[in-house]
Amino acid sequence: MAKRVLPGLLLSLALALPAAADPMLKGFDYDWPVQQAKIRSQDQDLTMAYLDVRPAKANGQVVALLHGKNFCAGSWEGAIKALTAAGYRVIAPDQIGFCKSAKPERYQYGLHTLAANTKSLLDQLGVTRPIVVGHSMGGMLAARYALQYPDAVERLVLVNPIGLEDWRALGVPNATVDQLFAGELKQDAAKIRAYQKATYYAGTWKPEYDRWVEMLASMYQGEGGRTVAWHQALTSDMVFNQPVVHELQNLKVSTTLFVGEKDNTAIGKDRAPEALKATLGDYKRLGPEAAAKIPGAQLITYPDLGHTPQVQDPERFHRDLLGALAAR
Question: What pLDDT digit, counting tens, does each position of 121-136 carry?
Answer without folding.
Answer: 999 999 999 999 999 9
